[in-house]
Amino acid sequence: MRSDLYRPCAEARALIAVPAVPIVAIRAGAQRPASVPSGGRRKWLLAALLAGAPIVAAAAAAGIWNAAHLSFGSGPNGEMRFTSNDRLTGKRFPTPADLRSAVRQASFPAALATGLPAGARPTQMVYGPSIILISYRLPGTWRGGIRQQTVIVTDPRSVGGPPAKAGPHSDLSLCCGGMHAKWLVGGELVVLPETNRLTTAELAHFKAAMLAQAARLGSAPGSR
Amino acid sequence: MIPIPAELIEAAKGGEAEHVERLVIAIWPDAFRLARAIVGERQGAEDVAQEACIILYRTIGSLRSTEAFRVWFYRIVVREAAELKRRRSRIEPVPDAVSESGDQAASIDVWRALSGLPQHLRDVVVLRYFEDLSSREIASILRIPDGTVRFRLMIARRRLRPLLSEATETATQPNEVTTHAI
């Protein structure tokens, strides 16, 4: 069975003349701004990121307004809305280098999440200068189901103040099905949508670890 | 199939352009040959291989297992080839015309036989007999069950065997037709 097809196919393959590697075109193609997803893809990434949270996202034309604005509706389950002229970049399965790169480009003193349950692994990241959203897959799922927790770190100045007057680049309504928690930690605001994915003990441990990290980084300016 | 050293893949995962380009150069012949066998014509194959290498360049950092590199990359090539075929579905591809020498006769019969297969059978045949991959690896690349791969291979072999044996018999006769489309 093996001999009757392998031999002619291998011969046919060997006879294919391979052209020279178009390395210049490949390099140029790789440097196209594809890392900045289009409006449609950005919406998809955010939808995937905030699994289970219905999202209504609308991209408007870029205007003069440059600040980011995050607002919370009334009550613990209130709607979150994020508006900004930031260009958001999406990344699946971000590597430690990607995470460091997102922190470096942040316009506020960002520090990544620490103190999540051991084995938590980042699966999605969407970031811009004023916001970093990272979705972590958590270990210890019952019957192998997926347990995810999204952590948002943003510039504290983006909370409060007037919303966008001119058309912002991103206008995202994040309607969370569960409770969300938010704390001011060091120079950043940490928001956890749908915190019912973490147990109370895990949430307390996460908050304590974030505060400890902020204290440590605060004593060594510029180390972030 | 050209073996790719694990150290080269590991280095490329770091994201440095120099290492990634070395990996692209190393995998290019395999990428082109696979694309050529799936797409069936040269220009399209070059487009597919190039686009797959661009995706590799951009996303190699997301590869989790170095051992899975070939399966991961072949999946990109197959997906890009399918995308190209979908875009060109209403346009008849221009086949490559070559002058056939005696050594190329068997090869041309393979191409002709392959062109008679539907795409889903062609994909498994190419990955199995051109790239020498196991049915498990093919299943992973095409994201279909292992049993489906084996079933498709069985159907494809049934269809190909008479065509190839017929062609072998004809090719042994002297003064045959000397030009075919690949």
Summarize the structure.
Chain A is an alpha+beta fold. Chain A is built from five helices and ten strands. In chain A, the strands form two sheets. Chain A has a six-stranded antiparallel β-sheet, with helices on both faces. In chain A, strands 1-8-3-2 form a four-stranded antiparallel β-sheet, with helices on one face.
Tell me what you see in this structure.
The complex is a heterodimer of chains A (224) and B (182). Helix content of chain A is 28%, strand content 24%. With 224 residues, chain A is α+β, with helices and mostly antiparallel strands. Chain A has one domain. Chain A has a 6-stranded antiparallel beta sheet with strand order 4-5-6-7-10-9, with helices on both faces. Chain A is elongated. In chain A, 35% of the residues are buried. Chain B has 182 residues and is mainly alpha-helical. Chain B folds into 2 domains: 1-95, Orthogonal Bundle (Rna Polymerase Sigma Factor, Chain: A); 98-174, Arc Repressor Mutant, subunit A (Orthogonal Bundle). Chain B has a two-stranded antiparallel sheet. At the A-B interface, helix 1 and helix 2 of A face helix 2, helix 3, helix 5, helix 6 and helix 8 of B.
The pLDDT mean of chain A sits at 68
Give the chain pair forming the largest contact, with residue counts. A-B, 31 and 39 residues
**CATH architecture classification name of the largest domain in chain B:** Orthogonal Bundle
pLDDT < 50 runs, ≥5 residues of chain B: 90-103, 171-182
CATH-level-4 superfamily name of the largest domain in chain B: RNA polymerase sigma factor, region 2, helix turn helix motif
Amount of beta strand of chain B: under 5%
Q: How many beta-strand runs of chain A?
A: 10
What is the percent of helical residues of chain A? Answer: 25-40%
